[in-house]
Design brief:
The chain is an all-alpha fold. It is built from 21 helices and no strands. It has one domain: Sodium/glucose cotransporter, CATH 1.20.1730.10.
């Protein structure tokens, strides 16, 4: 199919999304509407918003290609973790409790929740700075992954694709806020679901069906020896440590990512949680399996890597650029009409992730810092204007990082997930479920998480980023309860407000 046809259809899709943004702008009256859709979203919109934010171009391009090639069929462990821990268990454990407590505490964001739960404005400001700093590289990784795909399918230069995507994200989000994201996520989710199903069906059909392709991928030559001792010049960990670190950070990490937890704040009622949980789990299973299984299938198509992957060899390193593996695979072996479906699918997922990332990051300044020093409810207009302006600023910062190509896609994402999960997982979980969690414990948890992440990233370097991120996520879960038990318990009257169901016990 001619790239001009691809471009024309992408333009039509973009126009439709902008129309949704404009329509939603008319319904956005205050900060709560802009950031949470007025807490009126039903189970389908909430579930699709969660799923499309979870699975972006980073999954389909960076993770599917790099990890599918590196670990082969063993990436199915990541699929199971993302589906049953990152989605099913997250909704079951967190969604209802989060929705109820944030309503009682009048919190719109993760840092605002921490301030209200632990009665500490500095904790809110610290959390806001962590959000803003570490979501920028995450957003840049999404831009990079999508730009690589646009480069291969539409013939655009990498920089041209980046500028186009950044401009679209800025205009679309500034118009309609979270309500626009949620409405369009429902449309995008349908495109993604159908695209994954068709892609996997056709690819496995080329290799004899699902059973035959799965059996072929079990060949040891397509899988690294995960339990073998590391080579003298390689990472200090055997392969299984890296693999399970990736399972951990991509499955438990989303429990504390502000852009994911936001979906729990905005659902209409606690009664809708069970239906949303089921929908989100099915969506996650299809999306993660489709991406990682397609990445593993590259082994069956590129059987002679030295010659088959020559078109994506990096001139500087003389090695294949695995961030380009999936775009190259798709444009080489997938029928042209399906390339369009996949392009729209990845584009849809990425626009959702980018919208959520930009919205949450701008809120870190407009709501959590500006709002912390002013009366947010009395300055709705000023806060709305600041939110919209900061959306544009955040897009520009992410664009600059992506233009510089500072790192591989997977590393950028894992760095962001490790630091954010390290900062928020312990204060958020213990704050929701443990009355004895204290302000000092929350500070210790956040500082130890971010400090461990940054320290290990700098000390171990790029080859060990997944392991560093996993350790950074676990350390605060041990530090925070110890510090909480060694410090004075929280005020009883405040706890009664946070936990009314156990008031008086």
């Amino acid at each position: 199919m001619n790239p001009l046809i691809y471009s024309a259809l992408i333009v039509l899709y973009v126009v439709a999304m902008l129309a949704v943004g404009y329509w939603c702008m008319k319904r956005t009256k205050n900060v709560g509407d802009f950031f949470l859709g007025g807490r009126t979203l039903g189970p389908w919109m909430s579930a699709f918003a969660y799923g499309t934010t979870y699975f972006s171009a980073v999954l389909f391009i960076g993770y599917a290609g790099r990890l599918g090639w590196g670990f082969g069929i063993q990436t199915m462990w990541i699929v199971l973790g993302n589906t049953f821990v990152g989605t099913l268990l997250a909704w079951f454990v967190l969604a209802g409790r989060t929705r109820d407590m944030t309503v009682r505490l009048k919190a719109l964001t993760m840092p605002e929740f921490l301030r209200a739960r632990y009665q500490s404005m500095p904790l809110q400001i610290m959390g806001a700075l962590v959000v803003f700093v570490f979501l920028v590289p995450y957003s840049a990784s999404v831009y990079m992954g999508l730009s690589y795909l646009f480069q291969k399918t539409l013939g655009l230069q990498y920089n041209q694709a980046l500028v186009f995507l950044a401009a679209l994200t800025g205009v679309y989000l500034v118009m309609g806020g979270y309500f626009a994201v949620a409405v369009s996520d429902f449309i995008r989710g349908i495109v993604e679901f159908l695209g994954v199903a068709i892609m996997v069906f056709l690819l496995v059909g080329m290799k004899g069906g699902l059973g035959a392709s799965f059996a072929a991928l079990l060949d040891p030559k397509y899988m690294p020896a995960l339990h073998a001792p590391p080579p003298p010049t390689g990472p200090p960990f055997p392969g299984w440590v890296t693999l399970w670190s990736l399972v951990l950070i991509t499955s438990f990490g989303p429990w504390a990512l502000p852009q994911m937890v936001q979906k729990f704040y905005s659902i209409r009622s606690k009664a809708d949680v069970k239906r949303a949980m089921l929908i989100a789990t099915i969506f996650a299973l299809f999306m993660s399996f489709g991406a990682y299984y397609s990445g593993a299938l590259t082994h069956l198509f590129f059987t002679n890597p030295k010659t088959d992957l020559a078109p994506i060899v990096d001139a500087a390193t003389k090695k294949p650029n695995l961030d380009l593996l999936m775009p190259f695979f798709i444009t080489t072996y997938v029928p042209s009409w399906l390339v369009l479906v996949i392009l729209l699918m990845v584009f849809s997922a990425s626009m959702s992730s980018l919208s959520s990332l930009v919205l949450v990051s701008s809120s870190a300044i407009a709501i959590d810092i500006y709002g912390a020093f002013g009366k947010r409810d009395e300055k709705q207009r000023q806060t709305m204007l600041l939110l919209r302006a900061l959306c544009a600023v955040f897009v520009i910062l992410s664009l600059l990082i992506a233009l510089s190509r500072v790192d591989v896609i997977v590393n950028l994402m894992v760095i962001a997930w490790g630091a954010l999960s390290g900062a928020f997982l312990a204060p958020y979980l213990y704050g929701l479920f443990w009355r004895r969690a204290t302000k000092a414990g929350a500070y210790a948890g956040m500082i130890s998480g971010v400090g461990t992440a940054v320290g290990l990233f700098c000390y171990w370097g790029k080859p060990h980023i997944p392991v560093s991120a996993a350790i950074a996520m676990l350390v605060p879960l041990l530090v925070m309860p110890v510090v909480s038990l060694l410090t004075s318990p929280p005020d009883g009257a405040h706890l009664a407000k946070c936990f009314p169901a156990v008031k008086g016990k």
